[in-house]
């Protein structure tokens, strides 16, 4: 089971985290590349506004690719299987890596943009299919911890990208094309290791009707003595579905039986993206400068933020099956609300005392720790748990699409929010975190140690009224 988390994660959410962070290091080198390419083609300098536009397209096309990947990820998981979809996804990553790698020697920045788009598709599919696979292969008592594998590998990808992007490694002027094309290594690793693991047992029995392969897979994952209980759980779900086929995303919107589950996924996904975590990273450099850290050392201090996220994802993975999902996610949002208040005050009085920037630094790390402990990891875990087999792929497609649209929207609007509100922008995120915490407290039941059918029954009263 542990090895399957590693085999799935290395080419799944790791790619998303890695490709989000590596684009920051070579920003200036890509600007120079765009200028030089334009000059050699048209024998005139690139207009500064056009340069900004081309750079924006290069950076943000990743989000568009992610949205496309999220929209096709669920369908791939149904047609090819969870494992088959992940294996096929690596072909897209390798192709995207090659295009980005050859863009510099060929002098074609268009290949860089296409490569980023393909890597975005790869990340969108990975974020959709990986938690689907992990949620389905895990036994009830380990489901939360295994599902947290998605978050652990995502934060591990961010930290690895930050380290490899240092100018002493591949972030320098000479090696940046290698940095962008290094995404092919996790893809190759998954192509080597994942075929050794079975397909999702739930998919094999419920979607394919292949009982023999399901039993073999369960024995591999849970051992020949303890697989029987999981088998009975899958059979009960299969009987309850009564041959119902996998639903399309639009069918979920008209299905009263999953109304509140769907609302929950939409609220939690938007809450995660709009929680202010992007604002924290935006303000980090400014606060580190105010604390007297030199510009050359800031990339190394920023590694601390990546290490913080990684540490809390691991901690959350250890705690989730002990203390439950509700406690961690509500607690995470409430702590983020508290640190937003502290950060607003410390940013307002930043110039007043020499120790105030250190309060801001502490708040930044505390905010990141709070995010990683709850909203960062548990959002994906709950998406897997709130739906039964026929609705789960479609739910991930909807959740993924909402996530990428929110990610793109906050990327576009965030500079205007910061310019307009300055340090008071955290008041917006404070309200958002408090509202999401209240929603989860009122609506979402504890899902720890419950089967997917038991969780569905918990929502039955909400969906159909108290008397049904």
From TrEMBL:
<feature type="transmembrane region" description="Helical">
    <location>
        <begin position="176"/>
        <end position="197"/>
    </location>
</feature>
<dbReference type="GO" id="GO:0046323">
    <property type="term" value="P:D-glucose import"/>
</dbReference>
<dbReference type="InterPro" id="IPR045263">
    <property type="entry name" value="GLUT"/>
</dbReference>
<feature type="transmembrane region" description="Helical">
    <location>
        <begin position="111"/>
        <end position="134"/>
    </location>
</feature>
<dbReference type="InterPro" id="IPR020846">
    <property type="entry name" value="MFS_dom"/>
</dbReference>
<keyword id="KW-0812">Transmembrane</keyword>
<keyword id="KW-0472">Membrane</keyword>
<keyword id="KW-1133">Transmembrane helix</keyword>
<feature type="transmembrane region" description="Helical">
    <location>
        <begin position="85"/>
        <end position="105"/>
    </location>
</feature>
<dbReference type="InterPro" id="IPR005828">
    <property type="entry name" value="MFS_sugar_transport-like"/>
</dbReference>
<dbReference type="InterPro" id="IPR036259">
    <property type="entry name" value="MFS_trans_sf"/>
</dbReference>
<comment type="similarity">
    <text>Belongs to the major facilitator superfamily. Sugar transporter (TC 2.A.1.1) family.</text>
</comment>
<dbReference type="InterPro" id="IPR003663">
    <property type="entry name" value="Sugar/inositol_transpt"/>
</dbReference>
<dbReference type="GO" id="GO:0070837">
    <property type="term" value="P:dehydroascorbic acid transport"/>
</dbReference>
<dbReference type="InterPro" id="IPR005829">
    <property type="entry name" value="Sugar_transporter_CS"/>
</dbReference>
<feature type="transmembrane region" description="Helical">
    <location>
        <begin position="394"/>
        <end position="418"/>
    </location>
</feature>
<feature type="transmembrane region" description="Helical">
    <location>
        <begin position="146"/>
        <end position="164"/>
    </location>
</feature>
<feature type="transmembrane region" description="Helical">
    <location>
        <begin position="327"/>
        <end position="349"/>
    </location>
</feature>
<dbReference type="GO" id="GO:0005886">
    <property type="term" value="C:plasma membrane"/>
</dbReference>
<dbReference type="GO" id="GO:0055056">
    <property type="term" value="F:D-glucose transmembrane transporter activity"/>
</dbReference>
<keyword id="KW-0813">Transport</keyword>
<feature type="transmembrane region" description="Helical">
    <location>
        <begin position="424"/>
        <end position="444"/>
    </location>
</feature>
<protein>
    <submittedName>
        <fullName>GTR11 protein</fullName>
    </submittedName>
</protein>
<feature type="transmembrane region" description="Helical">
    <location>
        <begin position="298"/>
        <end position="320"/>
    </location>
</feature>
<feature type="transmembrane region" description="Helical">
    <location>
        <begin position="53"/>
        <end position="73"/>
    </location>
</feature>
<feature type="transmembrane region" description="Helical">
    <location>
        <begin position="262"/>
        <end position="286"/>
    </location>
</feature>
<feature type="domain" description="Major facilitator superfamily (MFS) profile">
    <location>
        <begin position="5"/>
        <end position="448"/>
    </location>
</feature>
<dbReference type="Pfam" id="PF00083">
    <property type="entry name" value="Sugar_tr"/>
</dbReference>
């Amino acid at each position: 089971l542990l090895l399957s988390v590693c085999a799935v994660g290395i080419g799944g959410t790791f790619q998303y985290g890695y490709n989000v962070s590596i684009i920051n290091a070579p920003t200036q080198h890509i600007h120079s590349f765009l200028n030089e390419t334009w000059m050699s083609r048209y024998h005139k300098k690139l207009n500064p506004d056009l340069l900004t536009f081309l750079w924006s397209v290069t950076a943000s096309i990743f989000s568009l690719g992610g949205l496309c990947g999220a929209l096709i990820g669920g369908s791939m998981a149904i047609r090819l299987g969870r494992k088959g979809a992940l294996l096929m996804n690596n072909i897209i990553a390798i192709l995207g890596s090659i295009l980005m790698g050859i863009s510099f020697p060929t002098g074609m920045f268009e290949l860089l943009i296409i490569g980023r788009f393909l890597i975005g598709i790869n990340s969108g599919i990975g974020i959709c299919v990986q938690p689907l696979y992990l949620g389905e292969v895990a036994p009830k008592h380990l489901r939360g911890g295994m599902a947290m594998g998605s978050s652990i590998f995502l934060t591990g990808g961010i930290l690895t990208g930050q380290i490899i992007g240092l100018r002493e490694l591949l972030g320098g002027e000479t090696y940046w094309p290698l940095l962008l094309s290094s995404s092919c290594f996790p893809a190759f690793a998954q192509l080597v290791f994942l075929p050794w693991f079975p397909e999702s047992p739930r998919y094999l029995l419920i979607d394919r009707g292949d009982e023999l392969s399901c039993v073999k897979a369960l024995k591999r994952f849970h051992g020949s003595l303890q697989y029987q209980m999981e088998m009975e759980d899958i059979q009960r779900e299969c009987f309850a579905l009564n041959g119902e086929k996998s639903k399309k995303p639009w069918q979920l919107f008209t299905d009263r039986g999953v109304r509140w589950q769907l609302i929950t996924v939409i609220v939690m996904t938007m809450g995660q993206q709009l929680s202010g975590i992007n604002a924290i990273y935006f303000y980090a450099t400014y606060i580190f400068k105010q604390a007297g850290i030199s510009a050359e050392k800031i990339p190394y201090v920023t590694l601390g933020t990546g290490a913080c996220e990684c540490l809390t994802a691991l901690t959350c993975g250890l705690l989730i099956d002990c203390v439950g999902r509700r406690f961690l996610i509500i607690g995470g949002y409430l702590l983020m609300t508290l640190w937003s208040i502290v950060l607003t005050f410390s940013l307002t009085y930043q110039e007043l005392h020499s120790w105030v920037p250190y309060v801001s630094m502490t708040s930044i790390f505390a905010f990141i720790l709070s995010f990683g402990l709850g909203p960062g990891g548990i959002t994906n875990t709950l998406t897997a748990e709130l739906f039964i087999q026929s609705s789960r792929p479609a739910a991930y497609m909807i959740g993924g699409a909402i996530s990428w649209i929110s990610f793109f929207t906050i990327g576009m609007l965030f500079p205007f929010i910061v310019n307009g509100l300055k340090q008071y922008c955290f008041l917006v995120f404070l309200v958002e975190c408090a509202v999401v915490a209240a929603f989860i407290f009122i609506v979402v039941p504890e899902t720890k140690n419950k089967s997917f059918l038991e969780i569905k029954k918990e929502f039955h009263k909400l969906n159909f009224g108290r008397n049904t």
